[in-house]
Every structure is written in C-alpha cells, then in structure tokens.
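Re: folding output
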Amino acid sequence: MSEDQEQPVSTGPKNAVVILLDSLNRHMLGAYGGEEFRTPNLDRIGARSTKFMNHYVGSLPCMPARHDILCGALDFLWRPWGSIELWEDAITYELSKAGVTSQLISDHPHLFETGGENYHVDFSAWDYQRGHEGDLWKTKPDPSWAGAPNFGREHMPYDDSRGYFRGEADFPGPRTMQAAASWLEDNADQHDRFFLFVDEFDPHEPFDTPEPYASMYDPDWEGAHMIWPPYMKGALEKGVLTERQAQQIRACYGAKLTMIDHWLGKVLDVMDAKGLWDDTVFILCTDHGHYLGEKDLWGKPGVPIYQTLGHIPLMIAAPDVQPGTCDALTTSVDLFATLADLFGIEDKIRQRTHGHSLLPLLEGTTGSVRDWLLAGVWGREVHLIDGTHKYARGAGGINRPISMFSNRWSTMPTHFLRREDELPLPDDRAALDRMPGSNVPVIRQPWGENDRLPYWAPPKLGPNLLFDLKSDPGEETDLSDTPLSGEYADKLHAVLKEVEAPDDQFVRLGYG
C-alpha cells in the first residue's frame, strides 16, 4: 500500500452501510408511531437504532439531496440540479485513497442520466439494477403490461420495462435489496474496511407492486391500480381526484412501502448472520417525504416544504450505542460529515461543506451539533429551521434575479420536457466567479425578470410563512404577521451571510 493509501487508525466501528429509501414518509413508519401500513423491518432497524426526531431535508429534490449526502455541501442556493463539480469530490474519492472499499447498489435512474453524472465513478464498484421509473432500458415493450392512469405524464420508460417483471423478485426494488444482501454475504469479510451505499428508488412512484401487496390496503379497488400520483396542489378541490381515487393512490404507496420493507429484511438477515452489527454503523435515511393528500398536496408540487416532505426519518445503529431517540436538530449534509468522521478523512475533504458529524450525538458526548439548518429548492422559498420554528421566505417581488453556478452545465433529466424547455444555456451575461471555499473559477449565469426558467422557479412566489413546530406540528397557524416574523427574517439574513449565499439571493428574497 502506497504512502497516500495508508489506512486511518480506527478505534471505533470499521464499516458503514447506508440505505437510502426514496420518498420515505416518516409519519408512516411504525418506528415513528405510524400505524397505517406494515413496516416490520424498518421497525426492526428502529428497535436497535438511535432514532433522530428532528432530522430534516436540505437541498431538494432527488439529485440535490444526494449531493448533500455524498458531497456534504448544500447546493440549492447555487444551482438547481447537477453532477459533482470540478472543485469537489464525493466522499468515495477520499475513501478510496484511504483504502476503504466502497460499493454502490442502486436502481435510481437519475444517477445515470444527464444531471446525475459522476456520483458513481469513485466507488470501488457499482451495480445498477435496471427498469425503474424513467430508466431508458427497453425499446420494445412487453405487451403483457396494460399500463395505468398517469395524470398527464406522457409515455413513461417504465411502461416499456414493466412487462419484463414476471414476479416479485424481478421488480427493481427487490432486485436492488437482494443484490445488497448478496454483496454483504460475499464481500463483508473480504475487506479491511468497507462502505456500502444502497440508493433504493422505492417507495417512490410508480407505486406498482405485484400481489399480494397491490391489494393489501385497498382490497375492494377495481380496475388498474393508480400507481402514478399527480404532482399538484388541490387535486381533490379541483376535481382531478375523487376521494376514492385518493384512497387508492395512498394505498398503492403503502403497498410499495411494505414490499420494499420485506426485501430490506434480507439485508438485515445478513447483518445478523455475519455479526456485522458489532463493527458496522448502519444508517437508514431518505431524501425527502412524499405528499399523499396532506393539505390536499400530491407528489412534490411547487409549494413551501411542509413537514410531510421535509421532516424525514433517520435511524442509525452503531456498535456499543444503546437504542433510543435523539432530539438534536440534524440535516442531510450531516450524514457526509458523519461518514468522514467515522472513516477518519474529515481533514482530507477539499470542498467547503456544511455538515456536522453525528458521532458525538451517538456517543453521548454532546446534546446538539447545530442551532439551525437551511432547506429549499433552487428558485423557490428558502427555509430556516431552528428546532422550534420554521421560517419560509419567498421572493420579495418578482422571483428574480437568480443565478446558477456550475462548471458542469447540465439539466434536470425529465421525460416529459424537451431539453430546450428545461434550463437555458449560459449567454453573454455569464461570468467567472468563485464558490465559497474554492479558488476554482466557475461559470455564473444570472437570469432576470423576463428570462424563461424551469418550472420549479416560477415568476412569482407566495407569501412568507412562519410556523411554531412545537405547538403547531401540523402547520395550521401562520405567524408571519407577528413581530416574531421580523426576528426570523433577520436570522435568515444572518445565516445566508454566514454560508456566503450569492448576492442575488438577497435581492430575490427582498433583502435589497
């Protein structure tokens, strides 16, 4: 082993397993008190874990959330969606230099599409299980799949793949979990230290499952199951959904949740059989939740981040740490910092990061690691959460100006929009700038009032919001017209200064 590959000395756990389940609703898990759907294996993890009770999203949606976890840096203030940039590394880069074997197992299509490039390349190995949602896998559909209502979506790549799933074990989620279990069985004792990252797209839509799951929570439903939820506000109010259809969509989510929970159990069985709990930190997390009718919201529409979407589960089982709960405020970038701390590479990271290791919380040497966190989607409201309140600040007037910072100019991969309809290319207003903590020049492209931008950055945003999360967890009472709102406006201004947010964010948000 070369000098720069010397393995860090460790007196704690040797390994880490991170399982990310996409669109996992905290309030539906038995481990967090949910009773609507069956989640025995998620509850099994909860029984041996520290359950984090105030864990929140950072950057949204899918790829920005993974950037938080794998690169440790918030990016929603600087760009909407993209790959690893020139000035930064995924955690796997330094792990490789430190002699840690890393494996990615995933059925997440966005990791392998335009806008998701380079997250997989520094893993020691990666395994992509094909066929989920927008995966361009098959050109000749199997005619046995009749399709399902899709609420405005055009033909989805999943419609070409679905007929090739003959039984439960053929679905992408089960295949991903079986591959993870098999990797642990065959590899866990073959490496000095390892990091396994399972990026599982379930229970994200399509909420498509075979029997017995498909009818498990709605046995009286007749016709094609409603596996594609609409993405909108007010679907019931506007008559897009009936109450009966809404019940069916929610039941289909539950079916997908229970199915992936079952296959997760196979990973836990190998952890048990090989005694891996004794030297491995096991992290169960998600990128965000999913609206299934709460406030008559569906999917991930363009609204502020309410608790259903933003207050997410995090369970960590660590050797010699007794199970329990942790009330400390945490967010997704903290997972990167935790892994860097665990593997002893925290001083090797070259990009500026925004996270704090959670190991001191697990060890009981501190009661908190942060006083606030930021959350948001590029071009929409910026949210400040401090453990007691959530302040959502939108544009002070027109939702401009706003810039995108990137040296890897890419677009959000969607199959219902043409590339030219998504993110405009840089124009003659583009200039070289710097990211906080970096001297690498980066293209900064500003956009103004009359510029067309992606659908997630609308011309105007709604009013500011302020909620007391302790006394009003359902976010029913907006406090933005009280004096407290001014205090939070000032606090957010100071936090944006601290993270060196782009100057046009201050203008866009009405700070002048």
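--- second protein (sequence, then structure) ---
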Amino acid sequence: MDPLDANHRHVTRREFFGRTACGLGTAALATLLGREGRAIEDRVGGLAGVPHFAPKAKHVIYLFQNGAPTHVELFDYKPKLSALHGQPMPDSFSAGKRFSTMTGDPKGKRVLGPVEPFRRHGESGAWVSAFLPHIASVADDLCFIKSLHTDAVNHAPAISLILSGAQIPGRPTAGAWLAYGLGTETDQLPAFVVMTSVSKGTTCGQIFYDFYWGSGFLPSRFQGVKFRGSGDPVLYLSNPEGMSRTMRRGLLDDVAALNELKLREFADPEIATRIAQYEMAFKMQASVPELTDFSTEPPAVLAMYGPQVHEQGTYAYNCLMARRLIERGVRFVQVMHAGWDQHGSLTTELYTQCRDTDQPSAALVKDLKQRGLLDDTLIIWGGEFGRTPFIQGNFDDRKRWGRDHHPYAFTTWMAGGGVRPGLTFGASDELAMNAVENPVHVHDFQATVLHLLGIDHKRLTYRFQGRDFRLTDVHGEVVKGILA
C-alpha cells in the first residue's frame, strides 16, 4: 500500500477537522482563545460580558437532600391532614395525577397526618416541624418556597431535572454552567466542588451518579470535582516516593509544553482541559491540606456544627468545608446528603436524617452571617420533589409508615445572596397536594438562582449540535417575589 494513502487511512475524524484549512479547527481555536485568553481582574476564567448585571450573590452552596424530604412532615403545615388522618384521600385532590409505580392508583389511599407537631418560629412566624429545631431557630433568615413543582416522579430523572434542566442525563449541571460563565475567584481550587454523605444505618440511601455534577457538552474542565469522604479529599495529592515538588513542577511543565503543541494544531477544548487540570492538581497539592485543616477553627464554631463535624465524610464536616471553600473563592459547592427516601421509615429513620442535617444546616447559615459572607453567598436547601400526603404501606403498622414520591408541590428554602429573609412564598392546597398559590416550576427556580448571580438565564447559552442550549431549556421565569 502507498505510505501516503496508509497515513490518510489512519487520520482520525478529529485530526481531519483540525487540519481543514480555515475550517472547524481554526474556528474552535478562535473561540477557545476568546474564552480563555481574557484577563478579568477579580476572577479566573469566565465569559466576557458575564455577569449581565450586578449580582447579589457571588457564590452558591447547594445543600441537596437526595431522596426527597417530606414537605408535609417538615415545613408545609396543613391542619386538615391531621383532621382527616386515617380517612381516604379525597379523589378531587389526586384524580388524574401521575405517581410512581409504588403508589399506582392513589384512589382509596388513606390520609396521613404529620408525625411531629409544628410551631411558628421567629418574627416571621414560619411554620417548622419539631423535627428541625435548629433550622427553626434561623427561620427569620430563610426564604421558604412552598409551591415548587416538577415534572419527574422518580429520583434520578428528578435530580437531573432540577440540577441540569433535563430529565435525561447529558446536560451541564448548574455548577458547571456557573463555572463556564462566571469562572472563579481563585486558581488554587476548582470552581465547582461536590461532597457527598449519607446517614449511618439508613436503609433508604440514594446512589450518587456522576452526572449529578457533570459538565455535559461543556468542556470537561467545568465539571464538578468530587471531594472524597475519607483519606485525601482528592487522589494523588501526595507526590510519589522519591519525587520532589521541584521535580513534579518540571515534569508538568514539559507535559504542558507537549499538550500546547497539540492544542495549537487541533484546538481541541479537551486538550485545554488537560493542561488546566494538571496545573490545578499541582496547585491543590498545596491548597487542599490547608483547606482541610480545622485546627484554626474556633472551638465555638466547631461546636456550632455539632459533634460529627470532626468526622470526615459526614454532612456536618461537609457543611463546614463548604464555608471554607467559598471563603477561598470557590464558585459553587454542592453538598449532597442521601437517605431521605422514606417509603417506610417516617417514624424511624427520618429522625436520624433530621438529627444529622438539622444542626449543621442551621450552623452554616449562622456561620456565614456572623462572618459577613451571607450577603453574597446563596444557600439552597432542598431535594428533587416532596412526599405524598397519603400513606404508603399499612396504616395499622406505625413503625412502617411511609410516603411515596410527590412532584406536585414541595418545599425548598434559601438564605442570603439576595433573597428576602423571613419570607414564606407560595402555597400548596389544604392537603399539601398541589401548588396553588404562586406556583414555581423547577425552571423558574433555576432562572431565579442565575438571576441572583447576575445572569440572564436566556443569555447564558452554549451551542451544541446546532442548537443554543441553556440551563432552563426553553422555559423559566424569574420569581421576583422572593428577591430582596
């Protein structure tokens, strides 16, 4: 075979487009240089012209409660649920509704009143269950949205929808969008960090899929960096035996030079990602040990987060880490805690979930507030949907009381970052079944979060496969009623 012809047969598709004169390689390089080459005084990376207007928040801490906390047990007080406790759910509330296969037809399901009593708290008079005394203590700093609703009835599609705007995996998640659009305030840590935890002994833990913090079709440098719950938060923080930091620096410089040659030749964004991630890994060898050293924290602060703050991998530990991360310039911190899927454990494991998450969540609000960081840090607490007002399981077996998935109304709270404190926004009906007052769809919620960060959700887009995609898909309206 002719050597030249043989060489042409082995040219990859990417190499072909990269070598096309004045073609996609040149265009991609121009775009890449335009994005990566701009110097912005107070941040690293990001797009020119973003934010689109003055932001209220600069950072986000998303306390995501995997498995769907039961709104009717924790925040959405409905006296009629207690009044109808044990009676069949009125058909007028559930007719035509789609539930998970575990519920099937809701006809005849019995109403289940809240397990623990509710009380009003603070000057705002917010209703919070006895399950969450610490969160109740900061009620005047919180903005409760009680009219959220979603389109999905199962966990993974619903989590994907609220985090990425689509039920099917493959879209960029909110943290990736913000890393892409806003960049970060540091070059020592990633723009988007994820930490996961689960209560010990729970039987209703959820799987943490990587696409919950993925970058989708954005360059992979924008995906969330997951910090591990044991050992080094990130693998390979330590150099191999016999390799000094100076030697590591020289090795990375040589590798970067080789990668730069390929980048200039093909303008492949993933090569730029490789260069950036190698450099970030080197810097994190110095920044992460300091980040994870809690010895400088005042004892009173550690006590505020509760005893589990000293145990790596717990929710309390991750909440304190989240504060330390945003202090150091990280843009988006996603703290995910699993175990809220109470199909048959409202009277048992729900107590454990609340015990493990209540005090650290409230402590984070107090900690940021006393440090002057709450004004420009948006805290979000919530899950992917709520739980049904009717029972799942045998009504006569109280130890196995449960509730199924419920997409039609659920509660999320927010604090800081430009939201109105001490506000309860929206409402469900008298049985907490449907959002009836100021309903907020997941896409509206996403548009509002971006707005608080100075972003017009319709303008932060990325062209992929011939279409301009955005976090809110083709939907979403800013919920102006919650803005400070």
